[in-house]
Amino acid sequence: MEPLLDIRGLRTYFFLRHAVVKAVKHLSVFPGEMVGLVGETGSGKSVTALSVLRLIQPPGRVISGEIIFQGRNLLALSEAEMNNSVRGRAITMIFQNPRSCLNPVLTAGTQIARVYQTHCGGTTRQARERALEFLRLVQIPDPESVFNRYPHQLSGGMCQRVMIAMALICEPALVIADEATTGLDVTVQDQILTLMRELRNKTHTAQLFITHDLGVVAETCDRVLVMYSGRIVEAGAVNEVYARPLHPYTSALLNSVPDLRKDSRPRSIPGEVPDPRNLPPGCPFHPRCDRCTDMCRVQEPILVSRGGSRQVACHASVQTEE
Amino acid sequence: MTLPIASGPAGNGLRWKPGLSRQLDYSWYVIRRNPVTLLGFVVVTLFVAVGLLAPLIARRDPIEVAPAFALQSPCRQFWFGTDQYGRDVFSRIVHSARLDLFIALTSVGLAFAIGTAIGALAGYYGGALDATLMRLTDIVLAFPPFILAMGTAAALGAGTANIIYVVGFIQAPIYARLVRGEILSARERPYAEAARCSGNSGLGVVFIHLLPNCLPPLLVQVANNLSWAILNAAGLSFIGLGVRPPTPEWGSMISEGVQFMMSGRWWLFMFPGLAIFVTILGFNLLADGLRDVFDPRLRW
């Protein structure tokens, strides 16, 4: 199957005063798929999302690579084409802190309707009808009342539903959810995740879930990509990766999640996330890795296929296989 | 502090009113709560009413010369007396209110439009555009405002239209500064990024999403500037650079009346002076009150 979104060798660099911070990645998302992108804070998850929408702010810049989306290279499009046919239309985003992501001076309904009118045209009345329809779709009780309310009059979970309605109203091919459930409490989080899964089944919209919560990925996604220091270190189907992680970072991450069934305490990963301005040579994970070899200290591993959808970027893992 | 409306921030879901009417309720509540603001509100309302209804309030023609009635002191027929040409001072003051209201609104509107556009673009796009626009506004701000107004008015020539341009021109940089600062903080907010992500162009983000969020401090500034505009218009007219003589204007009335100060014709300059004083005081008191209305800490 042809991937919906195919990022090839994307390099987003941040030119800071004393250093250049580099983020490199290859990833693909297939139509109708739910993909989880996990990693620690600062591992480059959000940068990936913003690179796709070409909204990296200076001093950041996309240096090279290709972002093929529905057969077009997004990096070659003009700003106007991005605004008219991609941002908010074919690729939409859902953010963390839904309340602060809604414009405080416009009512929830106006904002949803505006997205629809901007991208799909139609009269104000049609946009209103459509917005109400989508408010119902995201299971908001009493959509007429919510339509006329301002974000500060809605709860966090309601705001997130409004954001989701806004993200879906133009029937995009891909929704990027950047820490979409992080600010919400667990019960609301569960409702939102269930809703997102149901919506995927209804609309067949591909979703890229950016999160640091392995539980969210396990519950919602078909496939998971693990990022470390701006690189994808492991990719594969969720159940395979969780059952048999190939990259030492992935297994360390999984070990650091508390398990209620076992009596053992979660194990933290020794050391710290490397400073992105000053990455260690070779594999960026090697100083914290218990399977580190000589090769890891000098040569950066590349992402290699390990059968099926599984990919891993680790020398040690490849050697054990051989 | 009890609020006039039963529901809190999210509302209790029982009594929910549309945004505008709720905002008006709240504004009215703040105005009522503080007697000083109420006073300002009353004065400004009165001024606007007098300005709008001028021909109905003062039926006498403000520029009709009647030598027979020259220099009458205030009496039942001429409440505020008459000037050296026998023109009714009351009628002139009332009609002048209409002119001043017009000058204040248009010049502040002009300043607001120009200043906001400059400030918003400079704040959002930054870089060379920001530097250029802000240095230009710095040049204007470097002069004492009234000196600059005098110079510009002298260059353009006297006349009502020119007063409007001049007062608008010297006030625009204040808005540019204010808006730039507000936009600088607003453009980093998550909703600005969300707006970019949903396909708004740069101008769309600035003028549809960011600017409305920057309005509250601007509105306080508008209330203040309306009084400055009246003061400036009166000042320019006083020194002969503003409204041309037959047309009544508070500043020019004072300057004409001053010649009769020594002969004890106090009504000629006292009433227009009081009119300026009361109007400007009213606007300033109201502006202070508006600050409370828009103070985010008092908002719910």
Structure commentary:
The complex is a heterodimer of chains A (322) and B (300). Chain A is of the alpha/beta class and 322 residues long. Chain A has 13 helices and 12 strands. In chain A, the strands form 2 sheets. Chain A has an 8-stranded mixed β-sheet, with helices on both faces. In chain A, helix 4 crosses helix 5 and helix 4 (108-120) runs parallel beside helix 7. Chain A is globular. Chain A starts with a strand and ends with a helix. The mean pLDDT of chain A is 84. Chain B is mostly helical and 300 residues long. Chain B has one domain: MetI-like (MetI-like fold), CATH 1.10.3720.10. Chain B has helices spanning 19-33, 35-57, 89-125, 127-142, 145-156, 160-186, 190-197, 202-238, 250-258, 267-294. Chains A and B meet through helix 2 and helix 4 of A and helix 7 and helix 8 of B.
Could you give a short description of this structure?
The complex is a heterodimer of chains A (322) and B (300). Chain A is built from 13 helices and twelve strands. Chain A has 322 residues and is α/β, with parallel strands linked by helices.
